[in-house]
Amino acid sequence: MTVFAAAMVALSLTIVPQSAPLAGQALLDALFAKVEDAVRAQHQIDPVEELAGDHQLGQGTTGDLDFTVAGGSYMIVGVCDESCGDLDIRLATAEGELVGQDILEDDTPVVTFQAEPGAAYRATLGMTGCNAEFCMAQAKVYKLD
Questions:
Q1: End-to-end Cα separation, the chain, in angstroms
Q2: For residue 52, what is the DSSP state?
Q3: Theoretical Cys-Cys bridge with 109: which of 53, 78, 139, 143, CB 3.0 to 4.6 Å?
Q4: In 10 A of CB 26, how many CB atoms?
């Protein structure tokens, strides 16, 4: 199973609430925990940088997130709240060259990539399905193995 497949399986699992339905940041944290558990079954992972904590995007808007990595294999994962139906990620070098993208019609985009030491990137989160004025979205970059 690929890293991407493991992340998607994790997010397809139902999150059972303790006493009330999860929402907002609590939901995002629970979704990231599911992703991390699934990916750890195959890889040692370390969260590198939380890129978009408390990022609010309206329907059709984007947010750019700039980051630098130490080199190696990485995965960037996005999640969004209960009002979100479709979130996309496009990953480009600092020079604008497209590295990868997840523009599937889902709310959990995943892009894996290889990076040279000191490489700089821009991840663009795109909110293409929000059923509220704003949806909370967050992305994390993970170093694999």
A1: 15
A2: -
A3: 78
A4: 15
Q: Which domains does the chain have, with CATH numbers?
A: 3-144 (2.60.120.380)
> Which of left, alpha, beta for 139 (phi over 0: left; psi -120 to 50: alpha)?
beta
How many CA atoms within 13 Å lie on the side-chain side of 38?
Answer: 20
What secondary structure letter does DSSP report for 145?
-
| pLDDT tens per residue, range 43-97 | 766 665 545 445 789 999 998 888 998 899 999 999 998 899 999 999 999 999 9
The answer, as to whether pTM is greater than 0.90, is no
Residue type at position 1: M
3-state secondary structure of 110: strand
The residue behind tokens 């704003």 is: 134
